[in-house]
Amino acid sequence: MTREETALIIKTLRLSYPGFYSKYKPGDFTDLVALWSTMFADEDAVIVTEAVKNLIKTHTGFPPEIADVNEKIAELTRAATGEPTDEEYWIILRRALANGTWGAQREFDALPEPLKRYCGSPSWLRDHAVMDTEVVDSVVHGQFLKQFPAVKRAQEYRESMSPALREAIMRLYKPLDGGEYRPLNEADFNSARNNVLAALEA
Questions:
Q1: How far apart are CA 116 and CA 193, in angstroms?
Q2: Which pLDDT score, from 0 to 100, does residue 162 have?
Q3: Helix 186-201 vs helix 141-160: angle between axes, to the nearest 10 degrees?
Q4: Average of pLDDT values for 103-115?
Q5: By the 8 A CB rule, do 122 and 107 touch?
Q6: What's the rounded mean pLDDT across residues 3-31?
């Protein structure tokens, strides 16, 4: 989104919330346009505008913040692309568990990428496939609905990072034992993440 396109969005917000912006000085609006144009530099102006218009319909007294707009953009994107809801993802995972005892690898390979990240490896399917059905449909289901949104957010954040930024972070990282840095493979990364999530839920 260009600076000019951002200025039009800020103008829409000013017209929608005149009381909120009444004490702003011209320089404040210049700074506001600069901030928003930076934060939404990689977004299409049409999508940002639609997100802002949607939020204006429900926000009273104060304008939506950048975080609100980002969340609305993600919501609109999911609706447009037909991405499954968390409950629909659970249904997919539940079906995979039904064949997870002997077909764990095949079922794991067929899972959507977010579910692969959640499970970590075929062994997760195998281990949970032998659990009592009532436990799966209550405890495991509940854990999934609490933990899965964080998994999706982490994946979206990783994907939004530029390769250069990821590489810079990797170079800065030093293990506590002073040894050489070794990136975790996919299974180890997912397993470590799930352990942290489980600890947070405990």
A1: 13
A2: 72
A3: 130
A4: 94
A5: yes
A6: 95
pLDDT at 42: 87
| 64: three-class secondary structure by DSSP | coil
Determine the Cα angle at 142 with ends 97 and 133, to 5°. 40
Cα torsion 119, 161, 67, 57: sign: negative
Spans of all domains in the chain: 3-81, 86-201
Q: Do the beta carbons of residue 111 and residue 92 sit within 8 Å?
A: yes
Please state the pTM of the whole predicted model. 0.56
Residue 151 near residue 114 (C-beta atoms within 8 A):
yes
Angle 138-146-65 from CA coordinates, rounded to 5°: 150
Say whether 182 sits in a helix, a strand or coil. coil
pLDDT exceeds 80 at position 188: no
The alpha carbon of 149 is separated from its chain's Cα centroid by a whole number of angstroms, namely 7
Q: 3-81 is classed in which CATH architecture?
A: Orthogonal Bundle (1.10)
Question: Looking at residues 93-114, what average pLDDT do you find?
Answer: 94
Cα angle 157, 162, 167; round to 5: 105
CA gap 84, 148 in Å, rounded = 12
Average pLDDT score, the chain: 86
pLDDT, tens digit (0-9, with 9 covering 90-100), for 78-99: 788 888 889 999 999 999 999 9
